[in-house]
Amino acid sequence: MSDKVLQVNKYYSPDIGGVETVVKQYSEFLHENKFEVCILCVNKDFTLKTKIEVIDGINVVRCASLGTYFSMPISFIFYYYYIKLALRSSLIHFHEPFPLASVTSLFSLIGLFRKKKIIVTWHSDIIKQKILKGFVEFFQSLLLRRADVITTTSPNMIKFSKLLQDYSYKVKVLPLSIEVKDTITEDDSYILYLGRLSYYKGIDILLKAYDKSVTSLKLVIVGDGESSIVDLVNEYREQFPDKIIFKNFFVTEEEKWEMIKNCSFFVFPSVQPSEAFGIIQLEAMICSKPVINTNLPTGVPFVSLDKITGITVEPNNVDELSKAIDKLSFDIDYRIKLGNNACERVKTVFSDHIVLDSLLKIYNNK
């Protein structure tokens, strides 16, 4: 008889974000390894109907929702389904932060819930919603205390998160991972940023640094997001129509890989710890592309290492970013060296084969 696993997260495919990608990856892997997996999540949009479906052999319960406020879905029926599904499961895997689920830590103090094995994957602290932070952290602390195992995506997160520090004795580092595959790459003389255009991504700093640099490489920015940032990119594109290319839309997987494989190097200029890891860095690195990232107190500089697989600069530092852009633009031998190191780092640290095997050991208590 297979073990019954309940994965708890805000959303699930086809609602896709960084955490949702991880939940989908874990769930499909566990299903392949004979676990019976159920996802408990919430509908992103307002609906009075709970949808229960099977996706690729995985049971998905998408709870009715009053909508999303301050990035948090609101659902009262969620607690009914949590009690129902948790009691049927031998293991419950929470993905934090998810305030609605954090409150269920109260149930773990009651009767049958005490017998359940609990794993918490700590993706990031609550950064932006400061009003809710203190309230939610009370329940998060209860959940972490009750957890049998806590995983997080980098050793930096243990140092950064005050909540995790209290429970560091049971924290295991389980980084995000990608499928390692051979890629044929070219260098098509452009610098690439690809991702969501959000307040914490540092796009304004990138544009100022590019303007200050003396590189002859074009800057390609790909993504959609906040209108103020879209407007800013368009302003710079009008100033430098021959140097800045802006693709203001989300690309397909095939288009994404094509753009990465053909760039000279990748820039990841995030400025706030809302950026916890950056799996797009791994995708650039497996294509032997060096990454310019920032020295955030999260997993970002843990992914691509300064002067080994790329260049790490201080967040919000236009001068440092500009110099890094010029260094990788003109020193081609250095660029190739870092790119080769980047590919090797993904193969030896961030490969699905390595990371998911560690996940399986956690599930099997090894």
- Tally the helices: 14
Q: How does the major sheet shape up?
A: 8 strands, mixed
Helix content: 25-40%
Strand order of the largest sheet: 3-4-2-1-7-8-9-10
User: Which regions have little confidence, pLDDT < 50, spanning 5+ residues?
Assistant: none
Q: For the residues shown, what is the average pLDDT?
A: 92
Rg over C-alpha atoms, rounded to the nearest angstrom? 21 Å
Derived from helix and strand composition plus strand pairing, the structural class reads: alpha/beta
Distance between the termini: 20 Å
Fraction in beta strands: 15-25%
Order of H and E elements = EHEEEEEHEHEHEHHEEHEHEHEHEHEHHH
Kindly state the number of beta strands: 16
Overall geometry: globular
Would you write up a description of this structure?
The protein has helices spanning 18-32, 77-88, 99-102, 130-146, 155-160, 162-165, 203-212, 227-239, 253-262, 279-285, 300-303, 318-330, 332-349, 352-363, and strands spanning 4-8, 36-42, 51-55, 58-63, 68-69, 72-73, 91-96, 117-122, 149-152, 171-173, 190-194, 218-222, 244-247, 265-267, 291-294, 310-313. It is an alpha/beta fold and 366 residues long. An 8-stranded mixed sheet has the order 3-4-2-1-7-8-9-10, with helices on both faces. Strands 13-12-11-14-15-16 form a 6-stranded parallel sheet, with helices on both faces. Strands 5-6 form a two-stranded antiparallel ribbon. The chain starts with a strand and ends with a helix. 43% of the residues are buried.
